[in-house]
Amino acid sequence: MSNGDEEAETVDSLTERLEAVGEALEAAETEADLDEIEADLDAIESELDESELPVPDDEESPADELESQIEDYRNNLEAQRGPYAEDVTDDIEAAKPTIEDGEWTEQGEGEVVEAVAAFAETVGEILESPIDDAVTGLDSALDALSDSALAVTNADLDPDEDSETLESLVEAVDTLDADLDEAQEWSDLTVRETLRAEGYYDVLGHIKDYPPEWAALKEHEKRGNTEMVLLAYDLLDSDFMEEHCLDTLARMGPVAATDEAIDEMLQLAGKRDKTAIKILGKMGATEAVETLVEYVDADSDPTLQKVTFRALGEIGDEEAIQPLANKLLMDNDNVRPQAARALGLLGDTRAIKPLSETLKADEDSNVRAQAAWALRQIGTKRALEAVVDHGSDETFIVQTEIDKARRALDATVPNA
């Protein structure tokens, strides 16, 4: 058997083993399952390192593709682990500096004490072992947190057998964090007075299950009150609320696309703020196209390129077609599929030709798959025919797109 045949056999064998790992990862239910999968990944990675597969001059190395898949599986594996008791105790300990460093008003100190007392009681109920501390002030609140963390440690919780208990503890810590964020500090007074004067809290009923700012924010989202979301974003000096305000704008999408909101996000986008760029895409803000097109060639920052490509695709402005089409010719295998996908989101028939050429000529299977997907999103007869005319493809993900296009072509489609 020639070296080439041996190398191909090695690649096929490792690919099959990785596919089995992927199936096992989906079926994994216990930490032991995950440990076994991790051992399999270690063995596959070790064999890959020893195989010394050659690196082709003009295409991605099979070893690189396998290493990328191994890394993806490792990330998925870590995401499935836990939660662990040490994660809970670390989060409890992390609440202490918040209490120690906070400049609490008299009301705020009472809210902190109440929040910690409720948390300690909840932990005791979850562990069926009461936390005996009487929480009467900030010092005793810190002691109660220490005792709560110790109780979690002493419970010797198993991530498999006690998963529900651990999840309940994680939820309790999240509630504590939210309550501490709500507790009033001196710096909050002017902000809250301003919010109250602007009618920010008027949407709230008598029962507030969450911090009032967050509860009001969710109600303003339901009512499409973009100006109130921006007011909270501008005034509330809280990472917690800032994140939720931006998430709210992204979910509201076109509803949030007021002149004020677009201008504010454009200012951030001008500083290469990726969250703002994402929001502008969700808004469909054509005003952002000129700014975003400048980032299409930001090859030194692929993360910026990725969010920019998607935003331009979601906005759907024709000015983005040629800049995105140009990126289909790049050497970077990570950029080309993102450009193809963005053209699919754009949905303009003028993208059919460059996407068809990419599907036909690109040697990277992921790029071909994204080009085929993009043509299907355009969805006209000519676009679907371009996919079907590709014939067959040895790569499963590409062939899947071809089959979908063939079925779509059999249905009624517009001519273009």
Automatic annotation (TrEMBL):
Annotated stretches, region: Disordered: 45-68
Q: Where are the coiled-coil regions?
A: none
Q: Which InterPro entries match?
A: ARM-like, ARM-type_fold, PBS_lyase_HEAT
Q: Name one Pfam family in it.
A: HEAT_2
* Xref: SMART domains: EZ_HEAT
Domain of life per record:
Archaea
Protein's UniProt name: HEAT repeat domain-containing protein
Q: In which organism is this protein found?
A: Halohasta litorea
Record lineage: Archaea, Methanobacteriati, Methanobacteriota, Stenosarchaea group, Halobacteria
